[in-house]
Design a protein that fits this description.
The complex is a heterodimer of chains A (368) and B (246). With 368 residues, chain A is mostly helical. Helices cover 71% and strands 2% of the residues of chain A. In chain A, β2 and β3 form a beta hairpin. Classes of the chains: A mainly alpha (368), B alpha/beta (246).
Chain lengths: 368, 246
């Protein structure tokens, strides 16, 4: 049994820690503000993506379930938090209505829909950001895994799931602000969202969530259960004939992953200041898959790194030449699939291993 | 004094009008070693699918230990009941080590919570060491299963079956792709397993079946054509015609 924090996890968490200490210092306490505030929020956003990538890696990298709809769980978490932030606006909205968000007043609604109740409380919204995605994943997985839908077919219906949700959330009657989504947030837990300190706080919270998510994922994957997940991925029917109820394992990891994605979404919304149905778009979900593939599936840390690097490249490229980004992403994906099947992390570790292969294998054998 | 471990009675199953299994009846005693032979398409694999709950029969009875109805169960149920199945193409968990392959197969908790909170025990270590010894893979215990030779994978899979501590082993063409020496040793291994457990071996290789020296059931078009010793069935003209003569 390997350690919970192995070398790659240790290096990543150390880097994450340094970042979470250095950025706030540079932003809040240093002369001349070497770290601009937008950079803090940007990093916070990347860290949410990284957590989302870890969630996908759990199901895809370890259990072989290629979900092309993980953006849906992320967006649902984001909406849950967005609903709370809308309720927090209160009388500061354009229509100064204490209970109804602006868009409801605009639509001429008289009272709050039932599913908006409770979201005035932060703890409830935070809970729902996990429960709603988790419940959807559980119900969806219950039917899909029990009827043994696998492979491409499963990927297609996960894609359909997020697409259907996108169409639904675009409708004004759904009660989630239609195509404008939820925005104009003022504060969270009493802290103004525009202030530097709040931004730093949210970024640090995202870093903690990512670290927690990584450790949880690592704990799960190195347990006996994690080994069974790999069995399901590599030889599903063999696993069944050994007496493992494969659908239960898939359901467990799929639900856990969806909840993790929901947390990422809930942290994302206050940092970008808006959540709209575009987050459900199938292209977003496909991008998550690309992060994980680029970083290295089945490595957790690689998935997180992949998300951060690709999102960073996207920020640079879309600012520089926006129309070029999708081509670059596609090219990158093809390149990695052909040249680095184990992802960037696999390639780096493979390269390091080749530099000093004898010493490491020899010591390993000596220890064994 | 008959103690049937497994009983198939008048079992039929068709796929799109094709009768893969047609009124098949077989009885396997506790501790018996049985070889099942038959030409391609005789229904050998479908028979195994029905016994393990992968396929449901259209009609007929499949009884386990005279009391449990296997037709209502799925693969995981039958595995937990004590039926181990070895596939024709050796199927092991390639990325796991040889040792982990056995550990994952050991009899024990199979639920999500059991495995999430599982801790190793001394008894498990001892059983794994014993099995590694039996299947002659002690030296390879830390190697990924993907590194094993074809024959070694077959043995590992048999070891995984034994780790489950099954009452009945269904073994599909274990000798396929093996060298002569490996084939002989595999026959010895299966003979040593029988007695304590029932073993059904599906095989094409006549030398291997001869080596097993057990009762033989000849399948043809989904039902039993002949049953008895190899010498007995190979002397029957109808068997020679459908199978051995070709």
């Amino acid at each position: 049994m390997t350690r919970l924090i192995d070398r790659r996890m240790g290096i990543f968490l150390t880097g994450l820690f340094i970042l979470t200490v250095a950025l706030p210092i540079g932003n809040l306490w240093m002369e001349g503000k070497p770290v601009p505030s937008y950079a803090v929020s940007l990093m916070g956003k990347y860290l949410c993506y990284a957590l989302l990538a870890v969630a996908l890696d759990l199901v895809w990298g370890y259990c072989g379930i290629l979900s092309l709809g993980h953006g849906a769980f992320f967006a649902l978490g984001g909406y849950a938090m967005g609903m709370h932030l809308m309720r927090e606006i209160g009388t500061r909205g354009s229509y100064a209505n204490a209970t109804l968000p602006d868009f409801m007043v605009f639509l001429g609604w008289q009272e709050l829909p039932w599913f908006w109740h409770g979201f005035d409380m932060f703890w409830f919204a935070a809970l729902m950001a996990m429960v709603v995605p988790g419940l959807l994943a559980f119900v969806f997985g219950w039917f899909a895994f029990r009827s043994r839908v696998t492979g491409v077919y499963l990927s297609i219906i996960t894609q359909a799931l997020t697409y259907a949700l996108m169409l639904a959330f675009f409708r004004n009657e759904m009660g989630f602000g239609g195509n404008n989504g939820l925005t104009d947030f003022k504060d969270i837990l009493g802290f103004p969202l525009q202030s530097d300190r709040t931004r730093v706080g949210l970024m640090v919270a995202s870093a903690l969530a990512l670290a927690g998510g990584l450790l949880l994922a690592r704990w799960v994957t190195r347990s006996r259960l994690g080994q069974v997940l790999v069995c399901v991925r590599d030889a599903e029917s063999r696993t069944r004939f050994l007496g493992y109820r494969v659908e239960h394992y898939k359901l467990f990891i799929f639900t856990l992953s969806a909840m993790m994605a929901g947390v990422a979404g809930a942290l994302y919304t206050p940092q970008v200041g808006i959540i709209n149905p575009g987050e459900f778009s199938p292209a977003n979900s496909i991008e998550i898959v690309i992060w994980v593939a680029l970083g290295g599936r089945g490595t957790l840390v690689g998935a997180a790194l992949g998300a951060i690097l690709v999102a960073f490249a996207k920020t640079l490229l879309t600012g520089w030449m926006p129309e070029f980004w999708l081509f670059a992403l596609g090219a990158l994906f093809i390149l990695v699939t052909i040249a680095l099947p184990k992802g960037a992390l696999g390639a780096i570790e493979g390269g390091l291993g080749r530099l000093r292969p004898r010493s490491t294998t020899a010591t390993k054998e000596a220890r064994a | 004094m008959s103690r049937p471990q497994l009983l198939l009675d008048g079992v039929s199953r068709s796929f799109d009008g094709f009768k893969a299994i047609n009124n098949l009846s077989i009885v396997v005693e506790k501790g018996e070693l049985r070889a099942v032979i038959g030409p391609n398409g005789a229904g050998k694999t479908t028979m195994m699918d029905i016994i393990t709950g992968k396929t449901r029969p259209d009609s007929g009875k499949v009884m386990w230990d005279q009391k449990v109805d296997l037709t209502r169960m799925d693969e995981a149920d039958t595995a937990r009941l004590g039926i181990g199945r070895k596939f024709q193409k050796p199927t092991v968990f390639e990325t796991h080590s040889v040792e982990d392959n056995l550990r994952l197969s050991l009899k024990g908790g199979r639920s999500v919570w059991d495995t999430l909170l599982h801790r190793r025990t001394r008894a498990e270590d001892a059983r794994v060491a014993e099995l590694l010894d039996l299947i002659r893979l002690s030296d390879a215990r830390n190697r990924p299963a993907a590194d094993l030779s074809h024959g070694q994978k077959q043995w590992l899979e048999i070891g995984m079956l034994l780790a489950q501590d099954p009452q009945l082993l269904l073994v599909d063409e274990p000798a396929a792709g093996m060298t002569d020496a490996e084939t002989m040793w595999t026959a010895e291994l299966l003979k040593s397993i029988a007695g304590e457990r029932s073993v059904i071996v599906v095989e094409h290789d006549m030398n291997f079946v001869r080596e097993l020296g057990c009762k033989v059931t000849v399948l043809h078009q989904g039902s039993v054509l002949a049953e008895g010793s190899l010498a007995h069935v190979s002397a029957m003209p109808e068997v020679v015609e459908v199978y051995l003569g070709r």
